[in-house]
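Can anyone check this?
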Amino acid sequence: MPDASPARRTRRKRPAATAAAPEPCITLADYYMGRDRLYADELTQELVANAQRMVARASELLRRAGLRRAVNSGWRPAAVNAAVKNAAKKSRHMLCLAIDIDDDDGALDAWCMAHPDVLEELGLWLEHPSATPRWCHVQIVQYGSWAPGKPRYFYP
């Protein structure tokens, strides 16, 4: 026989209906660019966790900027990074800590420069737009000489 005590019969309030979460602007598939299959043996759980954080923050950045953009460069396994012209030998892309987002018109870079508070809130650092023609580079780790109070952008 079911327990009929008053405490058990109390109905819980249902949470109010909420709007569905916004669709991410960038997905993990976009970020991996098929390399998760081609270089599966290099994609560690740490890299997957980093990629998830990177994609979530980049998507939120685009949502706040009101822009939809494609990924120019996401995760780069070592062999891919070595083949990228002018890529840093220790690129943050290799650790899934950085993303390059298409920005042919410069609107995303301009928005980021005008909203350093959002970069700070999201835990992002921006490569200065003068160094990134046609793309916007953001990363989820600080640049080498960064300290609180310094700009959220850097020069490579």
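Reply from J.R.: I decoded it. Strands lie at 71-73, 98-102, 125-127, 135-139, 153-154.
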